[in-house]
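Bug: token stream looks shifted between consecutive jobs. Job 1:
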Amino acid sequence: MKAPSLQFQLTDSESLGEVVSALSTQFQLTSEPETTTRHVFHDSFDWRLYQAGVQLDEVRGKGGAALTLRKLADGTAIETIRPEGPIERFYRAYPPGLLREQLAAALQMRALLPQVEIRCRERLLKVLDSEQKTVLRIALLAQSARTPGRGEYQPMAALIHLQPVRGYAKPLTQVSRFLGRNLKLATQREPLIALGLAAMGRQPLDYSSKLDFTLHPETPTIEVARQIHRALLDTLEINLPGARADLDSEFLHDLRVAVRRTRSALSQIKGVFPEEAVEKFREQFAWIGQLTGPTRDLDVYLLGFDDYRNSLPEALQPDLDPLRDFLIDHQQAAQRAMVRKLNSPHFHTLLKEWRAFLSAQDDPEQTAPHAHKPIGKLASKRIYRTFRQVLEEGLAIHPKAPPEALHELRKSCKKLRYLLEFFQSLYPAERIKPLIKSLKGLLDNLGDYQDLEVQADKLREFAHQMVEERAVPADTLLAMGMLVDGLLKRQQQSRSEFAERFALFAAPEQVESYETLFGSGKKKGRRGGEKG
């Protein structure tokens, strides 16, 4: 059985010569010529591979290019392929195998992007036994990192990588003990991608669209509101370059979610900012939602196209190809129109004014009524009131209720979800997370019901547009009609599941949890055992 490899870190590459000299006094060594390779590590913008415990390493050297998917924990190779051209951004472009399977599971719709480039000068030493057999390999690595393809390389700590030879465990132990005890070198377990990012002042997982606030119940509400809005503005701005470049659809998605959350926070965290400012910025962020909507809608249809195609009998699937061409053409036109507006002075002024507003000092004469009240009580009051509204609207829905009733309930559920997510750190995680989970289950059902109806209507609209713009095969229109029929049947299935989903959300134990945590006059368990 082959022993696991070990790695040691030096403070600088100049120390490597001293290490070689020290090793030579204790072990018989031979050396191979130094080689230079370039590593580029790829991941999605939101680090989905890293979160899945893998790293994608593109290596280019004299032997050509290799793309290896490795385990983060120990660097073990899962699969290596040899691409002939540039690295493909989406998993579907890769050949069947373990690499593609794991990329598909982790990335889904997100694109691979180069995260860090590492230039590595490697000198390989071999430890020999008395019979001149290689019993251990020692790789001496002098490295530097930069943003892929641009900028100056930043120095990294040098590494000594011990590569065991099967059947020779003792030399690995001897050399590792010598490096640790005699040379006082520290073992290094961080993956290479993390070390390269650290040299650039970055770290993995430095972006997430998830809300993660740590709030204290006594903090003034205006401070909490500003913290929430600044985080949402940061998310919006960090996604702008990717949305403009159309690198993958999730940049625009995360941007729009930040906009929706901003509008919800302006509406739901009331009495904190002056009303005229709230109204102004709420309208401005509604404008951002409108200008980004057409592109996002077409992104959604393109993302779902394979599912549309696969829902038809196999013989009819090619008939949908003209629809894909139509969607691509219109998405590209919508993207160009959106980018013009995102690049406009009006858009830049809006973001600048919003950040300045969030950073401004309070004007005592314009202080809103709830600005300096503690967030704990206001959050509970607002959450409980919104929950009661959801409960009332949901209980009023009967089998013959109009679609509009379910649409309004969905809006109220979204408000409740955002409030729970904004303020969840004020409450015990083990109590609030189940509430968020059950609410998401209800929202998924309501979202499916509404989205399927919208998709069916939109496909009808696309069919008319296609006829007006170009000659469309009759078989394509028939296939689209079958799609519409299938979507409407799925919508009815979602409608029939609503009662069960809502019953789970409105179960007595759920209602009791809301009343206990947030209800007026009830005891509310706080983090750290606080009661209030």
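Job 2, same session, no restart:
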Amino acid sequence: MTARPKPSPLFLGIDTGGTYTDAVLWSEAGGPSGKVLAKAKALTTRHDLAVGISGAVDAVLQKAGTDPTAIKLVSMSTTLATNALVEGQGGRVALVMIGFAEGDLARDGLKAALGTDPVVFCPGGHDVHGNAAKLDLSGLEAALPEWEKSVSGFAVCAYFATRNPAHELSARNLIRDVTGLPVTASHELSAKLGGPRRALTTLLNARLISMIDRLVAATEGFLAARNIAAPLMVVRGDGALVSAAFARQRPIETILSGPAASLVGARHMTGLDDAVVSDIGGTTTDVAVLDKGRPRLDPEGATVGGFRTMVEAVAMRTFGLGGDSEVALEDGVLNPKILLGPRRLVPLALAGMIHGEAVASELERQLRAPNPGRMDGRLAVRTGVPERLAAGLTGAEAKLYELIGAVPQALDRLLTSNAQNATLNRLVSRGLVHVAGFTPSDAAHVLGRQANWDAAAARLGAALLARWRDGRGQFIAASPEAISERVLTALTRLSAEVILETAFAEDGLDGAATVAHALVQRAVDAHPGIARLSVALDRPVIGLGASAPLHYAGLAELVGNRCVVPEDTDVANALGAVVGQVRVSAEARVSQPKEGLFRVASGESVRDFNDEAAAIAAAEKDVRAIAAGRAKDAGTDSAEIEIASEFRVSTVEGQRMFIEAHVVAIASGRPRIAV
């Protein structure tokens, strides 16, 4: 009797985006790239991300008709850490600075990041060779009984801890013994020099621990309730996967997790190792570069919420350009151009679908007017947030907010002065009010290229926009269809500009935006001139996002290379979350404090050798062991380890003089799966 073939394991990928949470069920069977068995979306529930996750995952399981117990690996990318830093959220933590002066808080934005959280300065720290100053933790010890009641965790940073972490370890052990609260030590997160920025990174990490812990716990509870007994992985900001337990300790490394996952997904779906990846959503377009199969990382560390961290993350440029971008016209010129973004509006087609006749009747009234008005096609509606979030409004804001209801109201009836327009914008920025207006999504509905909302409302908005007049007094378009074509053409063209701007910036060119605009203008328009210009990328573009097939259809001729839009482009992030690899590193430094003495600083140990070769061999052995241990903690049992060494030497009178060596081990492998 022939044995039945063992079924291929199933993998579940989850991405929590700003608007939607995506889920995808994937199998390694079905060709070199595997096969997407089912995909689904649910609205992201930011008050409790597990709700949105459960909605998307349940929909995927229902579509696939799959037994949940067949899932052997779950992996997710999340915007939680990124959003928290942008919005200034996180737990209250205490910062412990060892060997630093109070003036160091003024560097690298550390004081602004600390805010009103407590800090203590303790004597101690080390020099560049790891030699210790005298440590005195009495100030910390005196503060702990009070702080234990008022903070959620601690961040510890010591002077030159990357060369000798002994003083950070002493402080960490003291805090844990007295309080039992989570402690982040700076040497655990980065091996780079630059104390204040390392302290900033450590502080932000400590703030995020409880938040990521709640997300992981909620997700694990959801999986257990559905009998999914599979390891849970999380995407880091550099695109690598790590175990949920690893992410709980180092949540700062999950910033830019979503964009990194999209790059991994893009490479997997296309097989392209070198490409420019452009991900267009409703509000923004994110552009990054793939090199040799891996995302380019920001060499200075990721910047999120205005803070430059020491976290290795994808070098992503974000532009206020998307399907829901505000459409406006250039002022004061004979032939006005279509302007898009950066503000997001609620598309009229979406508002019409939700509110029906209330939207259509106002747009029809404006069309019956003999002349166009400057507020035509714009409506305001409350967002529906709890009333308590409207606390603290000024008198003017409260008065206008009272007039705006749950049914959209036309701005030409609502606003009576320019000052009220500024007041409305403040209500929008507070998240209390949405403005609805014509967007590229509406243009797509007018032309029949999108059909999920109310096309009639979109057409009324297009008709209002088309009857605006140029500098000669002529209508700017002959029909709703004509203006809609112009809007979509403008979006494709601006997409080319932001892609080229990213390419120029990656090449180190100043004024990248100006150069990109000028080249597109001359090359695409065949602009007459003595110099004939053309522009071409050296690699193809991968278009991601649900609307990429529409908006990137004409992109290839603008960027001088092909544009690839994969079949499952709408769930690239979720797919990237599940097809990635675990990748961790370990570093060691070998210095020469005095002639003939070679000091190895690796992990949490510092050792001296009398021979350079012996010191280098010890450093390589250390980083190999540390990387292997970290890889296991991060979720893989099959890591391959590569070691690279970089030497700083000088030549004096023909003799080689050793200065320093930097030894790095990188361990990578596929995550372990449930048996």
